[in-house]
Design brief:
Order of helices and strands: HEEHEHEHEEHHEEEHEHE
Radius of gyration: 18 Å
Shape: elongated
Number of domains: 2
CATH topology of the largest domain: Aminopeptidase
CATH superfamily of the largest domain: Gcn5-related N-acetyltransferase (GNAT)
CATH architecture of the largest domain: 3-Layer(aba) Sandwich
Number of strands: 11
Strand order of the largest sheet: 4-11-5-10-9-8-7-6
Helix content: 25-40%
Amino acid sequence: MNTGAPLTDPKYYAVVEATWPTAATRSLGPVTLREGQGGGSRVSAASVEGVASEAEIDAAEQAMRALGQDCLFMIHDGQDGLDVQLAARGYVVKDPVNLWLCPIEKLTDIEIPRVTTFALWSPLEIQREIWIAGGIGPERQAVMDRVTGPKAALLGRYDDKPAGAGFVAVHDGVAMVHALEILPHQRRHGMGAWMMRQAAIWAAENGAHEMAVLCTKENAGANGLYASLGMTNSGQYHYRYLSSGA
């Protein structure tokens, strides 16, 4: 399956793991299982290092079901064999994801207007409410709590009212933004761009030299935002899940 440029540097997978961590992992041969506790695909998907036999995939499926999770695998770049293997077992492609990158100075060159954005930890109740309104409930917010490195909750304001919330964390010199949500009635005022710039300013103060963000390919608005900021679409990955009819 060819869905875009490969995410060639494995360090970015490590950045994803550290800045949006699963609750627990364990290995079954070459398969790494993740216990997401309702935190979404990124923290629940199994991954494969090398080659997994059909029996090892069978065992992974049983373990995922025992956790009450869907049978879900993340397919890294270069894993064409795994992609074909899972497709033959009835797995369906889900959520191809773009990785956007840029040097941090690309987002720190413009001064942010006063009282427009803030970076703080722990999140305020209004930030949690904005996330919930955007479908980022307590289980996904718990993922943020699990991050052990530098992290911040982003708050955006427009016209003296709350406008958006986001999350940023740093690992190995890379700051990755997650859970960026703008309230529907506060969109089209440039808040997403200002909040990305706030994330970069905070990240530079916390040792980062590069900004990163993940975005599903189907989210045209968000992909357009990151392109407009001068970020580069630098890779992709996707998931496969076992549909209920398989």
